[in-house]
Amino acid sequence: MDLRRLRLFLLLAEERNFHRAAERAYLSQPALSQQVQALERELGVRLLERRPFRLTPAGELLAQEGRRLLQEAEALKERVRRAGREELRFGVPENLLPDLMPLLDHLRRGLGQPVEVVELHTPEQVKALKEGRLDYGLAGLRVEDAAIAAEPLLKVPIVVVLPEGHPLAGRERVPLTALKEEPFLLLPKEALPPLYEAFMEVFRQAGFTPKVAREVVRFPQAVSLVAAGVGVYLTLAPYRVFPHPGTVLRPLAEEAALQVSLIYRKTPPPPRLFEVRELLRALAL
Fold first, then answer.
1. Whole-number Å distance between alpha carbons of 163 and 184
2. Alpha-carbon dihedral angle through residues 226, 230, 235, 239, given to the nearest 10 degrees
3. Domains of the chain (ranges, CATH numbers)
4. Is-contact 160 103, C-beta < 8 A?
5. Fewer Cβ neighbours under 10 Å: the N or C end of the chain?
6. Is the pLDDT reported for residue 192 higher than 80?
């Protein structure tokens, strides 16, 4: 099937008007009509009635399935382009980079192949995998998509950020239940709903709903507010590698953690899947 003609037909099916569709396609109406007629001859069926305009049952089916076909074609083109590149493309959430970069460096050496890191949150990774823009992802959130395989790899602890002078700052581990009456700084739900829900599940397991003093998106802002005594803050362990003046980071006594999984598109499988899987499993131990 001619994909250019299919695109024009889908444009016409969306507009339901030859004049508007022709304008959007930068074609004359006769030229658009000729392309649709050629597509009908190619398929051997009538796709639409012109006066009044309506799609035939065959046209309705093509309008529904044609968009999926174009998406698959674009994904295939991207996979072919990727096959001509040397590097593997990994999606990694920005907030997990400090913990996961050593893992990826070991992977580069084990494969003897460049690994390009693309900073994407888990939902963005899933979309990029399905569109063929990534080979693999390291997801910090649960993935529930039939097209994507997810294999547990490691756990990243959730920690609490406290002011230096906090009564619990000297403890090796801090029970979350001991912070029940504290004001919390919290990631807004709309910023990243899955991560927000992961943190809220930690509170649910501790048996209380946090008192939210302020919502913050960026870690540096949260640390400044904690140091100023505005509240305490839950975050992920990778941030332990950075200096935090006026604050301390402590693991939770409950040993709450975020599961990191290797994710990839099931069909077609990504390049060097067996080697990538085995190397990452061995290195994550």
1. 12
2. -20
3. 3-82 (1.10.10.10), 87-153+259-284 (3.40.190.10), 155-257 (3.40.190.10)
4. no
5. C
6. no
